[in-house]
Amino acid sequence: MLQSREKDLSEVLRHAGLRPTRQRVALAKLLFGSGDRHVTAEILHGEAVRSGQRVSLATVYNTLHQFKQAGLLREVAVCGQCAYFDTNISNHNHYFIESDGSLIDIPGSCIRVDGLPEPPEHLRISHIDVVVRLVKK
Amino acid sequence: MLQSREKDLSEVLRHAGLRPTRQRVALAKLLFGSGDRHVTAEILHGEAVRSGQRVSLATVYNTLHQFKQAGLLREVAVCGQCAYFDTNISNHNHYFIESDGSLIDIPGSCIRVDGLPEPPEHLRISHIDVVVRLVKK
DNA sequence: CTGTGTGCAAACTCTTTGCATAAGT
DNA sequence: ACTTATGCAAAGAGTTTGCACACAG
Questions:
Q1: Mean pLDDT along residues A20-33
Q2: What's the pLDDT tens digit per position in B81-105?
Q3: Mean pLDDT score, B21-32
Q4: What distance in Å separates the CA atoms of residue B21 and residue B88, rounded to the nearest whole number?
Q5: Where do the domains of chain B lie?
Q6: Whole-angstrom Cα distance, residue A123 to residue A131?
């Protein structure tokens, strides 16, 4: 069961044009093995190391960007100090909790953006990010 | 006329609890002297220096944060590599043009965010950022 | 005068890169 | 074997901080 999951991940990576190396498979398992996640490079590296994997932080950075380019991850611009990557690539938005820098998904269907003006000539909308910032009451 | 504008700016700064020093007044003039603006520290510093002011980059950073805390500016999280400050502090949103990293205001009335789920306990919404990312057609 | 602000350079954080080594196919 | 990925350490951007000097009130 676990073994077949690992094989699936290898297939996913291969299909994305990425060699399923030990590091990439390990990171993919952490990322996609348990529901939707929001991680920074630092967080993911910490998890990998704690789970006994030997991966360098530089490789985590590289891998996150490769996964993003392959469409397996989406980057979320929230705080400016660190890049968050989201394993949920479907249409949705985010609560951002300022006090601890954490993210919570908001289903895409919950928010409707209406009455947007026409974008300038020669440009098209690639994506609309809605970030709802939360602070303590 | 120009002199009275400068006096007004001094008053604004004083009212915000900030001494109207030469540097702060000069930066305020650049920021608030000509309609709504989106600047990074780097950009504003460049303008100040080019217009003959002696201001250090560190002071520009400090000043931008002081103005932000005083409610004269709003920070916009878009690209993650650099902090943008917006002189328009009313309710509005942004087009972000990925190719050159520039921002365009979208009037707040143009976008309606509907059907937001309740935020988690003990947290309240401080602000909703909508960033419409634009790419070349 | 007194306290606050400024400038400079150094420190710091997050991220990327170059190059020799290791691993996948 | 051949190619691509990895690790490390160094470099790089953007931002902040500490401290001596300068300036506003």
A1: 96
A2: 889 999 999 999 999 999 889 999 9
A3: 96
A4: 23
A5: 2-134
A6: 23
Cβ contact A133:B129 at 8 Å: yes
CATH node for A2-134: 1.10.10.10
What tokens appear for A101 in the block?
């820098």
Candidate from A78, A111, A115 with C-beta closest to B110:
A115
Is pLDDT larger for residue A58 or for residue B9? A58
Provide the shortest C-alpha distance from residue B125 to chain A (in Å): 5
**What is the residue-averaged pLDDT of chain B?**
92
Task: State pTM to two decimals.
Answer: 0.90
- Tell me the pairing of strands A123-136 and A92-97: parallel
Q: How far is the CA of B11 from the CAs of A5, B16, B21, B78, B85, in angstroms? A: 65, 8, 11, 32, 21
- Cβ of A95 within 8 Å of Cβ of B119? The answer is yes
The Cα B24–Cα B62 span in angstroms is 10
CA angle A99/A101/A106 to nearest 5° reads 105
How far is residue A125's CA from residue A98's CA, in Å, rounded to a whole number?
27
Q: Are A105 and A88 spatial neighbours (Cβ–Cβ below 8 Å)?
A: yes
Local structure of B14: helix, strand or coil: helix
Nearest CA among A12, A104, A137 for reference residue A66: A12
Q: Residue B80: what are its φ and ψ, rounded to 5°?
A: 85, -30
